[in-house]
Amino acid sequence: MAYEKKSIRTIIDDVNCRRLYLPAIQRKYVWGDNQITRLMDSIMRGYPIGTFLFWKVKKDTINKKEYSMYEFIKDYHERDLYKNPAAPQPFLIGSGDETLWAVLDGQQRLTSFYIALQGSMSRKLPNKRWKNDDAFPKKELYFNLHSQADVDEDISYEFRFMTPDDASKNKDDSLWYLVKDILKYSQDELVTELIMSNGWGTDKIAMKNISLLHTRLVGAEIINYFEIEADSIDSVLDIFVRVNSGGTVLSKSDLLFSTIVSHWDKARDEIDKLLSEINKIGEGFKFSNDFIMRTCLYVLDMSVTLKVETFKKDSVIKIRDNWDSIKNAIKHTVSVLNDFGFNSENILSYVAVSPMVYYLYKGGKLDANSKSELRKYIVIAQVKQIFGTASNSALTSIRESLKAAPSDSFSMANLKNIRFTGDRNLRYTADEIDAMFDTYEIGAYTFMILSLLYPNLKYSQKGFHQDHMHPYSSFEEDKIKKLVMIDGDPLDDSIKEEWKRRRNTLANLQLLEGRENESKNATALVDWLQVKENIENVKYLPVGISYELSNFDEFMEQRQKLMSDALKGILL
What stretch of H or E contains 484? Predict the structure, then answer.
């Protein structure tokens, strides 16, 4: 290995001139904005930022052996551009003797430099819908030239991703400078064309900071790297695993993914494409490489233990040869989940999805009865937290039961005798069903249980919300303090607190189409039921009782019985 040094600007030039690439064994970019700004602060302070490892290889070798290479992300977009674009094949036209470099260690740092100094960052704003383009404002990295270096502070130099509009609003004496622009100036041009032209000649702090920024990014050779030369991807993978498995830079699944790619060169593109497709279905999901890898092993009746030994060459080749069928079964399964009303907000165990893929991969049909049973399975498996511990053992046990059952229909009866770690099972007793009404408060679990009670809603066509029948706001202190119970007794503090807790439990919840829920909003139940359409369509409504809030106890008791009886009919 030869030890070398370069400046950050030089390494950026290498990327722009297509001399530096990412090999297929590398994972996706995963750093957050805070990690980037802390890296920039470390550079300004003169702290070491670690060494880098590059694979030096001839272009001719890459082309002959058809190794896949990837370019760096420039304009990161959390929804639309979060994976590295593939380099063209055959790999770059030109001399086969030309030398290129691929990053084996330091990908996250180098990608961060490239985004910060050449591109932009577009991350989703909170409380905005995933499909809304305005939820992803384009931001660039700015440096506050009025940062006051303080060795006692965690962060001395303030960097921030901002829109140009935000940067132009100089608040609290901030002076924001677009960091990428510093790369345009030589040392001689720094004073005349940058400092003086911007009127910073008398601003000592700004002058000091802009000069230091230029030194660190343009002048100083702070990229310290080793080069290795190898023609075999197996040799490169061995070095890659040795370098990365010693620390926490890569997760176990990242290293395993690299192993797969070493045996199946197109795996990265295929899996990325599949994840992009399924994660955009409906309201969106968050399936991962880990799910895809484990599910491939699962449907092919292999060990589901995620370790390097599992992904030997013959196993990866088997996955590759069956990929189209596996891919279609996964996409079909996610479409079914969407039909059931699931998305990233209410699915708690992606591992639980693999047996559904297995059923469809093996030729299972989706008639009305099988869909009803699959819905029960995915709800029960998550509510009972079957995959919370010993998930591999749970998956294997379910697979063995599915093998022994008819392959063309799905029935929970075939899984009822499985005993999981911790003496858990996929069955419910009457007492367990009754306990649901006091155990779960509004969230993913209550949605799942309600989906069993409202099976005919068109979840994939309309967004359904969990609605409080007696509105949540009706229990606030200013509205409930003067309330008198239906029997005329005053509402004491202990009853108030109990009602506030119970307002979020199952018996006070229903599923309503989003716009209808927004329309109902804080309307009292007794008033909402005056509308003919509402009284006709509402489910599990007790009859012959008052719907006034003062009768909350009886309403909850009666509605719980109706819902509990229905659940027992479904689950027992």
Answer: none
